Structure formats: C-alpha cells, structure tokens
Amino acid sequence: MLIKPAIERSDMIYCALCKDAPCNSACLAMDPARALLGIWFDNQDVAAMKLPEKNACADCSAPCEKALSE
What we know:
By secondary structure, this protein is mainly alpha-helical. The protein has one domain (9-68). 39% of the residues lie in helices and 0% in strands. The protein has helices at residues 22-26, 32-40, 44-50, 63-68. Helix 2 runs antiparallel to helix 3. The longest helix is centred in the middle third of the chain and has 9 residues, at 32-40. The chain is globular, with a radius of gyration of 12 Å. It starts with 21 loop residues before the first helix and ends with a helix.
C-alpha cells in the first residue's frame, strides 16, 4: 500500500456513493469524490495515484467540506 489509511470508513459512509458530489464542484485542485470512492472500495493505491503531486489540501480553506454541509 502506498498510503497509510487516514480516513475511517465510518467517516465517509455518506460520501461513498454520492451521485452528484458537491465537493467536486467546490474543489478547484482535484476530484475528491473520486479519491473517496477509491478508498471506499479498498483501492487506496489507485486513489493515491489520482491525487495531485503537491498536497492540494495542505493550505486549503476546505470549500469541499463546506459544500457537503450545505
């Protein structure tokens, strides 16, 4: 495995099979729903390869998380 799991499955139950993910519209740097879907289906290595090389979330104000609560 390329990455160490940091997201618990119970934390992403509502996101796992979202049809029209609002987080994707809010995020300009990546496709968060696709990464979560890969993690959900125990395909963390492929999910990690789909992420940008630079951590797009490190200095982000998390509009994707805010979009999920609206």
